[in-house]
Design brief:
The chain is of the alpha+beta class. The protein has 5 helices and 7 strands. It holds the Pfam family LON_substr_bdg.
């Protein structure tokens, strides 16, 4: 059954379970936040985050967004002296946009259908989860060993749905790739895609390390 949900187009993808802090400065979204503050704290304060496919976050033009977004569940709102708001949200249920109303409120409002998160084929999900967990550990170890960045790997969830979103948040930096993972129909499909993504990233790391070592080997210390 469809529901109406305020929409916040952004140049990024919110994933279920992922924290997203926001600085609200445009007046139309200040209106949204003030309306959220009118909702009792005992009730759910939420809006929908949708990634922008074409267009800009700011300005009068309505951007073209992807059809599938993620609910932002409000955890904290802090009013700033200049009228802006600092908002902390966490990703909740995904949704699919049926239609968008750009006239009734200063911000966009979508008629949305919330999507269930399911594991899919349970045997496939378990298999992909085991491989992805191993590849993720290898990936973080190689990044740390290369000196590129030091990553402290959190405890990996045993639930394939939660694991699939954690991996998406950690590895998928490209907006289109992250959106594709968000839109995956089930955890098994998402984990299979992440399995390929991690292998690609490991291959790139291997090439970078090999090229770097090769270049170092070509340097001959000069004799004085």
């Amino acid at each position: 059954m469809g529901e109406r949900l305020p929409l916040f187009p952004l140049g990024t993808v919110l994933l279920p379970g992922l924290l997203m802090p926001l600085q609200i400065f445009e007046e139309r979204y200040r209106v949204l936040v003030r309306e959220l503050l009118e909702i009792p704290e005992t009730e759910t304060r939420r809006f929908g985050v949708v990634a922008i496919r074409r267009g800009r976050e700011v300005g009068p033009a309505v951007p073209q967004t992807y059809d599938i977004g993620c609910t932002a569940l409000v955890r904290r709102i802090e009013a700033q002296p200049d009228g802006k708001f600092s908002v902390v949200t966490v990703g909740g249920p995904r949704f699919r946009i049926g239609s968008v109303d750009s006239d009734s409120r200063p911000y966009l409002v979508g008629d949305v259908e919330f999507l269930d998160d399911v594991p899919g084929d349970e045997a496939a999900a378990a298999n992909h989860a085991a491989v992805v967990t191993r590849l993720m550990r290898e990936y973080t170890e190689r990044l740390t060993a290369s000196g590129t960045v030091e990553i402290r790997l959190p405890d990996m969830p045993t639930d394939p749905i939660a694991l699939s979103y954690l991996i998406a948040a950690a590895v998928a930096n490209d907006l289109a790739e992250r959106q594709e993972l968000l839109a995956a129909p089930d955890a098994a499909t998402r984990l299979r895609a992440e399995r390929a993504l991690l292998r690609r990233e490991l291959g790139l790391l291997e090439r970078i390390t090999t090229v770097g070592s090769s270049e170092l080997n070509r340097i001959t210390p000069s004799s004085n």
